[in-house]
Fold this sequence. Notes:
- The structure is a single chain.
- The chain is an alpha+beta fold.
- The chain has a single domain, classed as Alpha-Beta Plaits, CATH 3.30.70.
- 46% of the residues lie in helices and 26% in strands.
- The strands form 2 sheets. The protein has a 5-stranded mixed β-sheet with strand order 1-7-2-4-3.
Amino acid sequence: MNLRRALRARQERAVEREVAWSKSQRIPVDGYLGWLRSPRPVFDVVLAKEGHEQRIVADIRSLDARIITSFEPHRVRVEIPEKGFDRGIEGNRATIPDVDLMKAVVTRVVVPLADELGVQRVEMGTL
């Protein structure tokens, strides 16, 4: 197997793991792969009824104060901070969404509050 094929297979397995994670949540997580490719790590938590937006914002921000949130009726917008890394070439840095932090927001805050506060879904992708 040549190197290019091996790298492609590894990448495909990584994508499959991420898709499996999004599908394993108790509420729909729509547009996750688009979110991973998006230049802006933003997603929305969609509520069936209004009135609980501030509670969700407070619980999300308690995980990490760097998370930027805003809300309107039936919707909380969440912007996850990015992580920077060196590409191995001096002065060549890149940023990627903090996927682990996003997953913590979804699994530790949003999903547990789904029944209590009427969370319908998480909308990700290019918003």
